Amino acid sequence: MNVRFDLGPSVTPELRDDICALWADVSNAGGAVGFVPPVTREDIRPELLKHLTAMAEGRERLLVGRDEDGRILATAFLTFNGHRLMNHWLWVYAVMVHPSLQGQGTGRRLMTAVADAARGFDGITGIRLTCRGGTGISRFYEACGYKEVGRVPGAIKVADDDFRDDITMWLELG
Question: Which residues pair with 162 in a beta bridge?
Answer without folding.
Answer: 159
